[in-house]
Amino acid sequence: MVMFIYQDGNFWFVIGFMVYLSGTLFLFIQADELEKSVRDNFWKINYFSNITKNILFAIAFSIKKHSSPTDSLENHPFEDIFENPYKT
Description:
By secondary structure, the chain is an all-alpha fold. It has helices at residues 9-30, 36-62, 69-74.
């Protein structure tokens, strides 16, 4: 079974964290050294990163979980292949 990486919910969680952390890292490092007026302008970056992270989390929660490999064995279309062919 071929599964693309973006079909997995974990991918969207990781991307959400990466977007938020990379978008706000330098903002939080420099926040205490900035004046309040400048900090308020830069705080829009935090809002944008947080909204983007939440959208990516929503995508992750909305993706349907794929069945595990053991489930696919249980629902195999040829499950009667090992049954006795001479059964009456």
